[in-house]
Specification:
The structure holds two protein chains of two kinds. By secondary structure, chain A is mainly beta. Chain A has no helices and nine strands. The N and C termini of chain B lie far apart (56 Å). In chain B, 7% of the residues lie in helices and 33% in strands. The chains are: A mainly beta, B mainly beta. At the A-B interface, strand 2, strand 3 and strand 6 of A face strand 1, strand 2 and strand 5 of B. Strand 2 of chain A pairs antiparallel with strand 5 of chain B, so a sheet runs across the interface.
Chain lengths: 116, 153
């Protein structure tokens, strides 16, 4: 699975992500602090899986003594190949961490063939 | 170590000489994503990105802590120092797990922030929501900016 960064819109942040695979399930973890469930959109269009997360907060009124956090919206796009079952993508957002489970198609999983 | 003032890096750090090189390399690689001093090639401790905002009545600290549970977080305070410590746990640990990409990290982290002015440590409120920690620290009465009207005869 390869990821591609689409044209970056202004103020869009590319969130940090980790991708791993175990027993035919690809797990994608994306860090999106500040995003609520309502502000998150996960779309599959053809071969691309796009994530868009809107931060629920705005900047504070006051004097910033330290500013390290970026308050833009998150955007990330992946290219998924044919082995991923489009109908079996689960997404869960807990504490600003999005966990997606992408199931591989049964036909694409390695199989053991019994020898008669 | 809670009482050590956070200065970004240890003084007389052996890696000091590499800092400018490191900065350039990181700028090239972290082009958009990572806030400064939170993760890098040679960083030995992970620290969350923090905002420190001063308003008329309080000091607000915000930190990005995605995936951190409330129970794994520890906040301690002295009169002028706030320490955020905690642990980010990995919940999946498969032996056969194949890793394709790893930009997120797990493990312990910590950060100590020096607060400006006098604060009321008894009235601090903290909330962890959607992976963002918000700490409201009220200023002491004597530290608040006051407008005194002086009558001119």
């Amino acid at each position: 699975m390869d990821s591609q960064v689409k044209a970056i819109e202004r103020k869009a942040i590319i969130p940090a992500c980790s991708i791993s695979e175990d027993s035919g399930i690809v797990t994608v973890k994306v860090e999106m602090p500040g995003v609520e469930k309502e502000g998150l959109e996960v779309r599959v269009e053809g071969n691309s899986l796009t994530l868009e997360g809107k931060r629920a907060e705005d900047g504070l009124q006051g004097n910033y003594l330290t500013r390290e956090r970026r308050l833009g919206d998150y955007r990330k796009s992946f290219t998924i190949d044919e082995t991923i079952d489009r109908d079996r993508i689960e997404a869960q957002l807990v504490d600003g961490l999005l966990t997606m489970k992408l199931h591989m198609k049964e036909a694409a999983k390695p199989r053991r063939i019994a020898i008669a | 170590m809670d009482l050590v003032k956070w200065e970004g890096k240890a003084p007389r750090d052996l890696w000091d000489a590499f800092d400018s090189l490191r900065g350039e390399m990181e700028d090239a690689m972290n082009f958009l994503r990572l806030p400064p001093d939170t993760a890098g090639l040679l960083d030995r401790a992970q620290a969350p990105a923090v905002d420190l905002v001063e308003t008329a009545d309080e000091i607000i600290v915000k930190a990005d802590l995605p995936g951190v549970q409330k129970d794994d977080l520890e906040l301690t305070m002295t009169d002028s120092l706030l320490t955020i410590k905690g642990e980010k746990r990995a919940e999946v640990n498969g032996e056969k797990r194949k890793i394709f990409r790893k930009e997120t990290w797990v493990g312990s982290f910590g950060r100590t922030i020096e607060l400006p002015g006098l604060v009321d440590t008894q009235k601090v409120r903290a909330e962890l929501k959607n992976g963002v920690l918000t700490i409201d620290i009220p200023k002491k009465e004597e530290a608040k900016a006051r407008l005194v009207k002086v009558s001119v005869d």
